[in-house]
């Protein structure tokens, strides 16, 4: 059985030697993982697709600078995070219009189970919206660490590698992110409980 890091290394060497299709195999291997990680960080499917595509193009162009000290995916995700900094500003401005488009297009959650209350799907959607809102209000460094841990399933060590900070800093950021998220959700959900 070939270890993923070795396979990545082999594909990188092949690509650098002129076999561009080798990079296509790296794209196939990591495109879904990168997209889903970015989706949770950015909160927008369209932005996640754009940033993932931009990250792969940048990675291809900068492939000769890949030193192999980190896993290829960690290096790729770092490129994507750098690209998402400017997209994040754009996403904040567009978040209202995305919600408006959803309302205009009639994309409302539907509850297929007739045994539940009619408002159940809307309640779930409202809570999901509040969680996304609370997550978006976290600082980027806290949100990124939390998303990589909880939604992308990365280890603390992998996160430290991706965001280029010490392991202790990652643990601290995730702990603080959870506390802040819990506090923000308590504030946001409190009116619902009244």
Describe the fold and architecture.
The protein is an all-alpha fold and 194 residues long. The protein folds into 2 domains: 1-107, RNA polymerase sigma factor, region 2, helix turn helix motif (Rna Polymerase Sigma Factor, Chain: A, Orthogonal Bundle), CATH 1.10.1740; 109-194, Arc Repressor Mutant, subunit A (Orthogonal Bundle). 77% of the residues lie in helices and 0% in strands. It has 8 helices and no strands. Helix 3 (45-61) packs antiparallel against helix 4.
Q: How many structural domains does the protein architecture include?
A: 2
Per CATH, the class of the largest domain reads Mainly Alpha
Quote the beta fraction. under 5%
Give the overall shape, derived from the CA principal axes: elongated
Q: Strand count, sense and closure of the main sheet?
A: none
CATH architectural grouping of the largest domain = Orthogonal Bundle
> Counting H and I runs of at least 4 residues, what is the number of helices?
8
CATH third-level topology of the largest domain: Rna Polymerase Sigma Factor, Chain: A
The level of helicity is over 70%
Instruction: Decide which structural class fits the backbone.
Output: mainly alpha
Gyration radius over CA:
19 Å
Low-confidence stretches: 1-5
- Mean pLDDT reading: 79
Euclidean distance between termini CA atoms: 58 Å
